[in-house]
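W.,

You were right to be curious about this one. When I first looked at the sequence I had no strong expectations either way, so I just let the prediction run and decided to look at it fresh. Below is the sequence, 500 residues in total, followed by the output.
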Amino acid sequence: MSANRLHECGVAFSHFINQLDIKTSAGSAEAPLLVVINNWYQTPVPFFSALIGLGALQQSGCPLVFVINDCPYPGSAAAAPIAVIKEHCAGLARFGRLVYLSEHAEAETGDSIVDIQAEAVAMDRRHRYGFGIIPADHLPVFDSEASDHAGPALRGFAALLATEKPACVLIPGGVANTMHGFMALARRQGVRTATYDAGAGTPRVYFSGHDVAAQGWEVPGLVRQILNRADPRELEYCRGLAYRHADLVATGADDMLRFPFEMPAAVMNNDLLFLTSMEQDSSLLGVPGIFPTQEEWLRETIMAVRRTHPQARITVRQHPDERRFRSPYGERAVAIAQALAANDPLLTVYDTRDNIQTRALIAASSLVLSAGSTAGLEAGMLGRPVLSHAMVPYVGLGFCERPADREDFFARIRRHLDAPARLPAEAVLEAALFYYAKNYCWRVEIPVTPDPPIFLDWISTATTLPFAVEGFRHVVEAIATGANLCQLRHGANLRSAGIA
């Protein structure tokens, strides 16, 4: 987003909060909610975070501390958007205290942040480079500046956690801009964290009481509750929504900026299907895995399979969203597979230029190897066993095995190739319930999001917070109280369907 658009969003936001009226009976002794106001590639993210904090104030009366991250990161170029943010967030002082991290940057925390600082910068580097935010020739400058610029913000935030003793901190956007470091500091002190991410161009925001990278700790818990109740109407409702949404994704008809996919003209029976993901995305950065990169995952696994099963038919499908982003990580991973395929007639690679429906490839395969993406859930819904090298929350459920290490990963593949089998009905149901919970409960549709056009359209005409929308009420309730957002959304879904 341009600097002019950020200024435009800021002007509209400051006008909105200057005329906003919130009546609350908050008690001053209550532990506060810390709302991090952070520059985010000159998008409306800092203003959106403030709106969510204001919603929590109106919902529950919890006292607010707005933490303005005015430490320029990753370099001095960040100073200009920070000035815009500070100017247009000044009116938040009517609703809570404003605190500036730069004023606490030299505080003695009594707690080493060196490890967290290094990890946070490394993740941010991967995110920025992977999405083309910094080109390869600018990486040396980033590497020379980022760590030094991250230190003051992290030290200041550690000091605030010690002095404010918050009940919760709201931190935007997963891992980029050192936000992973903020979350790690909060969790180290036992403070509840809440965060969000958004689908570009859509009205959906992914809220979590934990960490976007964990895809919502709330999801597995809701799945277990639904299974334990074993209510036939509830199960059929969730299953129906899951398959309906999966049909939209498979045909490119959903609202996530996809495109129509073509059915392959001919797909032979396939033994092993690799489904790559975007390893630079917030949903995977920070998630532990057996392999550090997809390059290594593809190379080592294909070579291991060839040592024991030279006749196995293998297909690699590059994540279709790489068509938009052209991540260097995705390109390198596919290049590895293509190099191996050049001398292996039983290895087929579909990259982003191949507009092939992924579901058709899943249906033709005996075993699916997932890099932690939603396609692993879709494979389970089609009855295909799944192995994921990334330890996302669905790993270890009935449809996706949990390998202990690399050798165990290879051994499980060998067993599947020696004795292919479909998933039992209970495991297929579990995959469908997880898919439902992720897409209909964790992802919340609300009228205002951090997406620039959506944010500006809403903030320019709004006079009150969107409490008329049930999804917004649930989001701020979950953040203010620690309630399970997925449970709140699921209950509302059942009520609207006449089931609860």
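Here's what jumped out at me. The first strand starts at residue 33 and ends at 37. And, maybe more interesting for your project: Residues 223-440 form a domain with the Rossmann fold fold (CATH 3.40.50.2000).

Coffee later to discuss?

I.
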